[in-house]
TrEMBL record:
Segments crossing the lipid bilayer: none
PANTHER family: WD REPEAT PROTEIN 8-RELATED, WD REPEAT-CONTAINING PROTEIN WRAP73
Name recorded for this polypeptide: WRP73 protein
Lineage: Eukaryota, Metazoa, Chordata, Craniata, Vertebrata
Originating organism: Eurystomus gularis
Gene it is expressed from: Wrap73
InterPro entries: Centrosome-WD_assoc, Quino_amine_DH_bsu, WD40/YVTN_repeat-like_dom_sf, WD40_rpt
Gene Ontology CC: microtubule organizing center; MWP complex
Superkingdom in the source lineage: Eukaryota
Length: 425
């Protein structure tokens, strides 16, 4: 599905044929599929309205108007039959049921980066709350929205919460001014607190491994710390230096190569699409000789949100690899072997990394750098692929299909779908 101002377009993922076209009341600012792909939510925050569309029954429609309370966020519950709307100034969360048309209210939600978290099985929801100048966490049962546990979080200014994939442990971390991560059980017991250092900018990003055995914490000191799920103590930390000297690490460096074809050699005038792919600058990967010096950017000290520290990190679906990005070295992606706890590969790009994401089925990483190329890495090697489109197509984000056979590449104004051929076993 894609949004074009006030229109919602639903296409077939394989043929890109338009299946449904819906017209909303205003410009769509957010869109989300329900978990079973039967409904689509379209939020128009300016008007305080959410519209829901059904794929099975195109004539059925639903409009939720928050009225004077306003609307700043909207999302589906895991069952795909309830919608959670956060009102302006985070006064409350309204839970609307599509089945019974009933409404439930959750008071005092906190305005933070990640204030709502659902367990992977969809049974429980944790909400970060702020009341009387203190942080709290409430855990609700999603089947009837009854409160299961309510406890105060031992944080100065709670910044985010996230469940482990097995749903047994909830991680809650403090603002970047205080390095602190707290781990709670489902019944609200504090299992452990981890604090790496004091009096400096703290946690920037976190990621659970799919097996729930590891918690990776990226911080402003350019390091990733890995906690284990038995003692919640640090088992290792990964540094991101500007110079790589270890000869066991492979550094793939992107290099530009001149266009492969010349106009004189062509016996026919090329089409516009062919010409754009023939004469655009191609790139490939070379393996660098050690030691390798990466491009290091010193952050501007007097600006908010300094470009420093570990801004992105993600585990592969098989738990074998961890990909990280150090914002001080914006052109590099670091890939770590989790079984050996060692750095195996660094991809050094010509431009800054915009986004990366693991294939949901196998250890294959896709990344983009704001140009018209998509880059893929797997243990077998890496490749640079030119997107054959006319005009300027700058890929700013990408998203894998759940099958791992295709991915959506998005630019500011357009999108395209990249299909990958599956090897016959």
């Amino acid at each position: 599905a894609s949004c074009v101002q006030y229109r919602l377009v639903v296409r077939d993922a394989n043929t890109l044929q338009i299946l449904q076209l819906y017209t909303c009341l205003d410009q769509i600012q957010y869109m989300e599929w329900s978990s079973d792909s039967l409904f689509i939510l379209c939020a128009m925050y300016k008007r305080g309205i959410v519209q829901v569309w059904s794929l099975e029954q195109p004539d059925w429609h639903c409009k939720i108007d928050e009225g004077s309370a306003g609307l700043v966020a909207s999302c589906w519950s895991p069952d795909g039959r309830h919608i959670l709307n956060t009102t302006e100034f985070h006064l409350r969360i309204t839970v609307w049921s599509l089945c019974t048309k009933s409404v439930s209210y959750i008071k005092y939600p906190k305005a933070c980066q990640q204030g709502i978290a659902f367990t992977k099985d969809g049974r429980y929801m944790a909400v970060a709350e702020r009341r009387d100048c203190k942080d709290f966490i409430s855990i609700f049962v999603c089947s009837d929205w009854q409160l299961l546990r309510h406890f105060d979080a031992e944080t100065q200014d709670l910044f985010g919460i996230e469940w482990a994939p097995n749903g047994c442990v909830l991680a809650a971390w403090d603002t970047c001014l205080e390095y602190k991560i707290l781990l709670y059980s489902l019944d609200g017991r504090l299992l452990s607190t981890y604090q790496a250092y004091e009096w400096s900018l703290g946690i920037k990003s976190i990621s659970w491994s799919p097996s729930s055995q590891f918690l990776a914490i990226g911080s402003y000191d350019e390091k990733v710390r890995i906690l284990n799920h038995v003692t919640w103590k640090k088992i290792t930390e990964f540094e991101h230096p500007a110079t790589i000297v270890n000869t066991r690490t492979i550094v793939y460096k992107e290099v530009e190569k001149s266009p492969s074809a010349e106009t004189e050699r062509l016996s026919f005038p090329p089409t516009r699409a062919l010409a754009s792919s023939l004469f655009s600058t191609q790139s490939k990967y070379d393996i660098s000789q050690m030691p390798v010096s990466l491009q290091y950017v010193k952050p501007v000290a007097d600006r908010a949100n300094p470009k420093m520290g570990i801004g992105m990190l993600a585990f592969s679906a098989d738990n074998c690899f961890l990909a990280t990005k150090n914002d001080n070295i914006p052109n590099a992606v670091w890939i770590w072997d989790i079984q050996k706890l060692k750095l195996v590969v660094v991809l050094e790009q010509l431009c800054a990394i915009q986004s990366f994401q693991w294939d949901p089925r196998q250890p294959r990483l896709a990344l983009c750098t704001g140009n018209s190329k998509v880059y893929l890495w797997s243990p077998a090697g890496c490749v640079s692929v030119q997107v054959p489109v006319e005009g300027d197509f700058q890929i700013v984000s990408l998203s894998w299909h759940s099958s791992g056979d295709s991915m959506v590449l998005r630019s500011k104004d357009n999108f395209c779908v990249c299909y990958l051929e599956r090897e016959e076993v």
